[in-house]
């Protein structure tokens, strides 16, 4: 039963991510256009219709408002064969994919949740907040892939949520050393990116990556796990980039968003990090 609930909630929140990311971007474009004093012709949208909470979902091409039957995750897309019901323009496969991945991440998180049992109060609070963070992560991944940017309007709320979660854990367990661990964790995950950012004058990585590093450090509350994220994200990045270079799809000059690699590494480490850290500590001890 819990799996059914998690799948449905995951699919719906994935659908929310699609709409949210698109609106956030459209709002940004609108602001920029107004800032320059230029008026974009056609496709002008009332800002109210782009409101993240109040606006109705619409087709990204013809801006036709969508009916309830168009909003069923995955199924609507399949039944319309990936086309808008109104203007018949293709709707990207990104939409159902994001919905499926979000639902998949919810289920995998439940299956492998490291703070067992999920039923204890502390663990379930951490789990529910984690699901919220996952939704934010999905939005960041989509945004970074599409527009090479990690918007503050997604990262800052996630940082606030993570700070609240750290406070909850410290108060709930009375474990003050958690504060020190989190401090070190943030220093490692955020500090290294800040150093790279400062040294390269923002050319190698973006400011968004630095903030994302801080967020991940807060979230993991463990310096070993933060270190593991850095290591794992570079491996994932290499695995993705090298074949691209061989196929000449990626050149040295291509800009590649690093955010998604960091986030994928953070998700893996959040779920499996404790066992990986135990394993590598034991390997190091054996060799010493
Ligand atoms: Zn349309």
Helical content class: 55-70%
Q: How many individual β-strands?
A: 0
Mean pLDDT: 87
* Separate helix tally: 9
Structural class: mainly alpha
Ligands (ions, cofactors included)? zinc ion
Into which percentage range does the β-strand content fall? under 5%
The Rg value, from CA coordinates, equals 21 Å
Description:
The chain has 288 residues and is mainly α. It has two domains: 1-111, no CATH class; 146-288, no CATH class. Helix content is 68%, strand content 0%. It has nine helices and no strands. Helix 4 packs antiparallel against helix 5. The chain is globular, with a radius of gyration of 21 Å. The model is unreliable at 35-42 (pLDDT under 50). Bound molecules: zinc ion (ZN). Zinc ion binds at residues 59, 61-62, 64, 84, 86-87, 89.
Précis, in short:
This protein is mainly alpha-helical and 288 residues long. Helix content is 68%, strand content 0%.
SSE order and pairing:
Blueprint (H helix, E strand, L loop, with lengths): L1 H34 L39 H5 L14 H18 L9 H27 L4 H22 L3 H23 L7 H14 L2 H24 L12 H29 L1
Helix pairs in contact: 1-3, 1-4, 3-4, 4-5, 4-9, 5-7, 6-7, 6-8, 7-9, 8-9
Bound molecules: zinc ion (ZN).
Which descriptors apply to this entry?
288 residues; 0% strand; binds zinc ion; mainly alpha; 2 domains; 68% helix; globular; single chain
